[in-house]
Amino acid sequence: MIRIGDILLYKDKGFLARSIRFFTRSKYNHASVVVRKYSDHSFKIIESRLSFGVKYSKIHKDEIYEAVRHKNCPGISANDFEEICQPFIGKKLSCSELVAEIFMIFLLMFQDDMPTEDITPENIGSSKYTYGVEF
What we know:
Layout: E1 7-10, H1 15-24, E2 30-37, E3 42-49, E4 53-60, E5 66-70, H2 78-85, H3 95-104, H4 121-125, E6 130-132
Antiparallel strand pairs: 1-2, 1-5, 2-3, 3-4, 5-6
């Protein structure tokens, strides 16, 4: 089951999404992090999109392509995780850079010796530090 701190990976169908996957050589075009779970099987996430930067959104589990968990991610409450994420709101980062920056707060990385701005959704999904999560 998906929990707070899990990373959601997306495979959208639009032209921009396909272009992102092509140029990043990834099967994913977007990544976000779960901040809060709701009883209706939806989630509050933090994400970054080129058009608006970092913000909170609400999605339903049917919109998720894949979910992964960092092997060393600590269990954390929704309120505490949201407080950690709050300083990122409004910043202009790539979606993967946002995910990597959040996890760097816990001193966790996805690829050894790779700057956060170079991380792609594929690096997150295929990292030796992550594993798949059922949803």
